[in-house]
Every structure is written in C-alpha cells, then in structure tokens.
Amino acid sequence: MLRAGQARLIEAVAAVTVLVVIFSMIPMLFKTPLTPLRSQVQVDVNQYAYNSLYALVTNPAFIASIQNGNWSELHSLASLIVGPQFNWFIGIEPLYRAYMIGSYRVTGSYVAFNVSIAPSPGINGGYALVTIPIYILNQGLPLRYRVNTTVPMANVFITTSNGGPVYWWLQSYDYVTEEAEVWLYVPSGSGRLTFYVSTNSDVPYNPLSSSYCKLAYCPPYGGASTFMADSTSLQPLTYNNGAAVFNTQQGYSTYLGFTIGNINCGGNGYYSIGGYSLTLNVPQGSTEACSIINPGPSGSLAYMVGQLIKAIPGAQFNLNLNYQVTLYSGNAYQQFQVPVTLAFQYGSSTMNMILYINGQKTAALSNINYIYLYGLTISAYSYAIECPGNLAGFNVTVSVNIHDYVSGVDRAMIGSYQLPCSLASLQYNPSASTSMNINGAALSLTSPPPSYPNYYYYNTTEVIYDLLFTSPAYSTLIASAYVNYAILYNVVPSQYAYGIVGLRFTPTTGAYTVIVLPNGTYYLIALELQSLSGG
What we know:
Blueprint: E1 10-15, H1 18-23, H2 26-30, H3 45-57, H4 60-68, H5 71-81, E2 86-94, E3 101-102, E4 104-106, E5 110-118, E6 126-133, H6 134-140, E7 156-160, E8 167-174, E9 179-186, E10 192-198, E11 205-206, E12 211-212, E13 222-224, H7 226-231, H8 236-239, H9 242-246, E14 254-255, E15 263-267, E16 270-274, E17 277-282, E18 287-292, E19 301-310, E20 316-329, E21 332-346, E22 350-357, E23 360-369, E24 373-387, E25 391-404, E26 410-418, E27 433-446, E28 460-470, E29 476-483, H10 494-497, E30 509-516, E31 522-531
Parallel strand pairs: 8-13
Antiparallel strand pairs: 1-29, 2-31, 3-29, 4-5, 5-10, 5-29, 6-9, 7-10, 8-9, 11-12, 14-28, 15-18, 16-17, 17-28, 18-27, 19-24, 19-28, 20-21, 20-27, 21-22, 22-23, 24-25, 25-26, 30-31
C-alpha cells in the first residue's frame, strides 16, 4: 500500500488528540501561492504539489464530492487542476487513522517519551484526568514496543521530569476507539512527565529500580479501577491502587474501595462486598441503604461506575451527597449543608434520572432506555451573591453527566439552587466568596411493595464498582512529536484515485493537509504526483 509522504517528518507540539497534531501542519499548505493553472509548472515540483492541493481543497466542488461520495466528479476536477506532465494519486482518509510518532529514546527494556500536562497539576502537586489515545501512540512507537491493549496499559510506568514516580489509576478503556481515561496524581506538581513502555507487554519496566516489575501496572504506582480489573479478569484487591492515588492529604480526595470499614449497610434487603465492589440485591417490598463512613472532607466532584443487573419496574436507586458550602465575607464565615440526590427510577423498559438539590427537583431526564453499565460524574460549584439588605448569600450549580458504556452515548443535565435570602446573615462585600466540599454520602435501593398481580420473583440488583470524591481536574496531555502519515484505508475507489489507472505509480513528490467538512468530519488529504517526463 502506498505510504504517501513517508519521508516528510514535521516536528510539532502536538495535543494528544491527533486533531491538534495535524492542525499544526495546515499553515504549510496555505502559506504557498496559488497556482491553479495546468500549464504553470515553472515553480519547484514540490511547490507545485502544494499549489495543486490548495486548488483542490479550496474548490467547493471538491468538498461536495467528498461529502456526497461522488468520486467521478473528484477525478474530473483533479484532472483539470493537475498538469498533463504528471500522473497523480489522491488519498482521502478519516483523520483518526493518521499516524503520530512521538520523539522517544529506546533501550532493550523500554521506550520512553516525554509528555506534558496542560494545565500543570499545581506547585504542590495535584490531580489530572487525561485521555490517552493508545491507538495513536502505538502507531508511532517502534515495532517492538506497544502499549498493552488486552490488559490496557499493563506495561506502562510514569515518572515526573525529575524521575519521581507518578501514581496513576486507569478509570476506563474504550476497546473500540482504544482510548484510556486515566487519573494522574503528580506529587511534585510537575507538568512534564515521562512515559515508559516496556518491551515486555505484560509488566512495566521500573526505572526507579532499573528492573522489570513483577505485576502488571507495578502497583502501587499504577493500577486499574475495580471496573477495569473485573472486566480484564484481574484481582481488584491486587491491582486497584485507588487508595494510593486518591487518598492523599493534598487534593482532598477519597477513593471508596468498599469494605466493612468505610460503609455501613442496613435494611430488609441484601448487600455484599467483594473485591472493592458493592452489590445491592433487593426483593420486592424491601430497601437496602448504605452510608459512607467519614468520606472526607473531599472535593466537589463525585465519580461512580455502576451496573444495573436487573430491575423490578418501580424500583429506585439513589446516590445521596451532602455538600458543605462555606460562605466567606470579610473576616466572617458561615457554613451550610446542601444535600444533593440523584435518583434512578426504573420502569418496565425505560428509566428516569432526577436531580434534587436541597430537596427540590431541579433537573430530569425522562423515559430514556435502561443504562445498564454507566460512568457517572457529578460536579458542583458555588459562588457568592448579594441579597437584599446588603447581605451575602450563595448559588450552587450541579452538573450531571452519565456515560453509557454499552451505547457510548453521554447524557447530561444541570440544576441549580440559591440560598434563600431569609437565611443570609453575613454582610455582603465585593470580595465575598465560597468553597464547597463533600462531607457525607449514602446509597440506597428500594423495590416497590408487592401488589397483585404484579408480583416479581426476582430482585432488583445494582453493582457499584468504583466511587470516588475529588476536586475537578480535567487536563490535556500534550507531547513533543513528529508527525508522519500513511494512507491505509483510502475512501476513494482505486479507479478514481489515480489520474492514469493501471500505470505503475512511482511518486516524484507529494503534499498533504487536513480539511474539515461542513458536517464537522475531518479528513487527511494526500496528493502524490508522478512525473511523466522522466524528471
């Protein structure tokens, strides 16, 4: 298969999303003068390739031909623009298939490459939640070195730029897109990190001890969530390092590896704890409620992975969070408790999600299909407001996002609550501010009471794999990178991809760029030219 422009390497600062990587190359195209005429080939042949490509991608007919799949029109247009001195090849490929090759150093034991966290986790250390495109990384690494995707990232070790260990926790991995969601805790606060990918795909290489680790992820430095450990047939008790990452003095974060020491359940239903996961199993007419013992104080974000095994219609699952809001005005402060409840109400085949703040219904998603396996994020923030009489109050906004791991669909809702000004007692001033954190949490599952003839002989069963409280910490992973590309899955049929079909194609020069269609789809466009004059 033709590898277009294989020898052309372009150094760029690249966001881990390859969109940003390739976008950095666009100025190379558009800084060249336009030379659309077939006879005008006095310019350098490399320049001519870019001029021809520019004339193509700026022609509305070219864009329309891609969007409509009209390849014969594309062929006609390219034949008009490219001079008769050249045979040509056009490759058009969805952008996510492009290669990214990171700058790296290679030894017999590992390949190491540098990345950065933007924004930096902070001077005193802190958290970052990053998306790592394993597919893109693997395409750019030497052939002997690959990030494990069967047990995702099992052979990865991460350090700071000064060689200190970075503790990280694999939240989830998408086996379709091959992207990993990873929490990083960087003790030194360094924004520059080094990733080590072991030549042994099963275990990492530990540069701190100059030896291979004995276990995947090299715990406690790296590890997988209970959800990921269960899905890859690992032992969560061995590989879940949530406590090492989140239960730290800095950051106000807590990971609930469910044990009898941090959760107290009671009711006339059933519950079980195993491998850090909590299972609620409630028959009709029963309730099981669990309170979290001393969860904080923690940050204002709650993250949970859960699974609905089966539900009796009319059952309800609640996640209850108690937020403590501290209102500051001048030298005085006042604290308020603001309870937040997210309720899952199960019907016969659909469900409702309702957000309550301080007992008030503030948002809802109604009659959506059952979400059987989900990642749930609840984030909240507050700010001071001025009440009548020059008194200080506050507003709380709560955002809920639920990711359906089965369908890949995300759903979101936002609710808000304002402290009644009748409860305000502090004098307002322009520097008034607030802080908020989670200082209590509970779970409950209730199945409806028996009613003839709808008596169900099975139980409503809900599994909670992971639950953590932390501060919001979303970041972008960037890297010093080299960019190359290869047309592997050309969307243009071969009979329209070449100017002269059947002629042995040996490219003389080429050009490439990225375009975005009106529908938001990005494509890598490559134009290769073959001189027919023997030059």
